[in-house]
Amino acid sequence: MNRLTDKVALVTGAGRGIGAAIARAFAAEGAAVVLAELDIATAQATAREIAGAIGNAKVLAVQTDVTQSASVQAAVSEAQKAFGPVDVLVNNAGINVFADPLTMTDDDWRRCFAVDLDGVWNGCRAVLPGMIERRAGSIVNIASTHAFQIIPGCFPYPVAKHGVIGLTRALGIEYAPKNVRVNAIAPGYIETQLTHDWWNAQPDPEAARRATLELPPMKRIGKPEEVAMTAVFLASDEAPFINASCITIDGGRTALHHE
Ligand code: NDP
């Protein structure tokens, strides 16, 4: 359990769900972890839980709004003050905005892009100068299978997630000569509050849940810990030649041909 020893990691949206699982897994692998989260109460609760579970864990919760570049810069400064320069950034914070394209409000469009794409760029921009200077760093962007495939009624979330893949590839290529790797993870359905909120918004939540479980070839949805394992791998020195790439975690659903 020392695959991230001596590394400092900052995870956005780490108060709950996939981000919290990544923070836990990073701490278990020896990283110092900053939970950069909009809801400071959930971040502090998760930080306390990690500190209680892992002896000598180095964890810090910092109130952060990824839509505001100054807020993300401040979180990176806090991380540096507490633990040293950030070696690993996970841009995980994200929201679902699912609307009909032509009746969607301008505010919905902006809210989606502000969190799901600007938020990722704000994170990258805050850590890249330091990583470039030290000629070392790993950025992991949490995209989605919506970055490759479109489900009707989910606009404009997939547009922003396609952008996350574009950003990952562009920055991965731009800074490869500086030994900074930028990769993405594309999860399929993962059981978090986000998924429960979506089921609960459907006319028959239980039927929606059952339908979701029927979709993937493995007949189940993923767990946040299953995304976290891949984030550990991409963040670690076990993936030194993986760059500008994306790993899909969906039990094979994206590869399934629907007849
Ligand atoms: P959750 O909603 O459970 O967690 C997201 C976290 O991000 C929340 O703690 C939320 O805080 C925080 N957050 C939201 N807006 C901001 C912001 N502006 N600044 C900082 N933090 C913010 O989501 P998941 O864990 O399910 O999703 C995590 C990522 O994975 C997202 O990028 C999502 O798009 C992606 N994903 C999820 C899938 C799934 O099936 N769950 C599938 C594919 C991709 P608050 O509680 O205050 O809103």
From TrEMBL:
Source organism of this protein record: Paraburkholderia eburnea
Example GO molecular function: quinone binding
GO biological process: fatty acid biosynthetic process
Entry protein name: NAD(P)-dependent dehydrogenase (Short-subunit alcohol dehydrogenase family)
InterPro entries: KR_dom (IPR057326), NAD(P)-bd_dom_sf (IPR036291), Sc_DH/Rdtase_CS (IPR020904), SDR_fam (IPR002347)
NCBIfam families, per the entry: PRK07063.1, PRK07231.1
Domain Ketoreductase, residue spans: 7-145
Any Pfam family matching the protein: adh_short_C2
Keyword Iron-sulfur: no
CDD domains, per the entry: SDR_c
Assigned keywords, A-Z: Oxidoreductase
The keyword Oxidoreductase is annotated on this UniProt entry: yes
SMART domains: PKS_KR (SM00822)
Family per record: Belongs to the short-chain dehydrogenases/reductases (SDR) family.
PANTHER family recorded: 3-OXOACYL-[ACYL-CARRIER-PROTEIN] REDUCTASE (PTHR42760:SF133), SHORT-CHAIN DEHYDROGENASES/REDUCTASES FAMILY MEMBER (PTHR42760)
